[in-house]
Amino acid sequence: MKDLFHKMLKALNISGRDWVILTLSLLLAFSVWMIHNLSLKYNANLTAKVIAECSLDGHENLSAAGVEVMARGRATGYNIIESYIKAKRPVKVEFNPSVMQKYDSERFYVTGDRLNEYSHLIFGEDVTIDHYISDTLFFRFPSVNHKKVPVVPVTIFTYKGQYMARGPLEVTPDSVVVEGEPYLLESVKQVYTAPIRHFDISETISGITSVEPVKGVNIQAKEIYYSMDVARYVEFVSEAHVEAVNVPVGKSLMIFPSVAVLRMRCEFPLMDDVDSKPGLYVDYNDLKTSVGGTCQVRVRNLPKGILSYDVDPVSVRCVEETR
Predict the structure, then answer these.
(1) Cα–Cα distance, 230 to 201 (Å, whole number)
(2) In contact, 251 and 320? CB cutoff 8 Å
(3) CA separation, residue 62 to residues 81, 94, 173, 188, 211 (Å)
(4) pTM (2 d.p.)
(5) DSSP per-residue codes, 196-223
(6) DSSP 31
(7) Which of 5, 49, 117, 181 is a Cys-bridge partner for 66, taking CB atoms 3.0 to 4.6 Å apart?
(8) What is the pLDDT of residues 267-290, one digit of tens each?
(9) End-to-end Cα, the chain, rounded Å
(10) Which residues have C-beta within 8 Å of that of residue 22, sequence separation ≥ 6?
(11) DSSP alpha helices (H): ranges in the chain?
């Protein structure tokens, strides 16, 4: 057979180079024929799988599953091939709520006469539909509940030396409405922002961030505005005796240790004198509910313009004595 093929080529006087040209010519002719035929219109049965998108009060915006649509019409070869693909891969179609008719608590339907308005979205622009074989499409839109939950900012901040926040980061809105099926909403106690990153902060910051999505839940607010005041500070460290207050007559408290370190960070320039005002104390009433006889060290007479403070130790042991 191989020898016969070579004899034919020799008889036709076709060389190796001519054979390559002949093959390419045949491929080009076939491609032109294929493109021409695919661009022609044919009568055909068309199939697509549709996921409905529709704004219905108290329901998910997307239908729970795809619904198969069958129609008879004229379409190009390209559209027919695309129809086979769409039969396996759902196409999302946005319906006007006015075309959705309620069947029961979660099911809605669209009649064939209204489907004509959406044929170009379902099958393509070059398709002419004669009639729908599946004349009524039923979609299930799961019922949803809603509730309001707080927005929790996720921050990654670093500050320039001797700079800090005047107060907490403020977000607007600080709470959002979430919608979803009841079993999904049970576990949603709060939503988080996308990470907010600022480094070497030395001035007030502000901006817009997004809300991290929650699978299966619709969050009404998509963007969150944030801001935070920043100030320069100076730090003061001092030791002070811890006093006891509200001690009943005939009682006394022995405090161990009796001296604590107070560290204050005050806004610069100073708004108040910080040398003599602050005092440290424990409240006798705390002893009644304490565990192991420990009481929290509290601070009084804090100066104006203080940004933050801490006490070391934060609690001391108290021993009650009767005089």
Answers:
(1) 8
(2) yes
(3) 26, 9, 26, 20, 20
(4) 0.59
(5) EEEEEE-S-EEEEEEBPPBTTBEES--E
(6) H
(7) 49
(8) 888 776 666 678 999 999 998 888
(9) 125
(10) 14
(11) 2-11, 16-39, 77-86, 112-115, 119-122, 182-185, 284-287
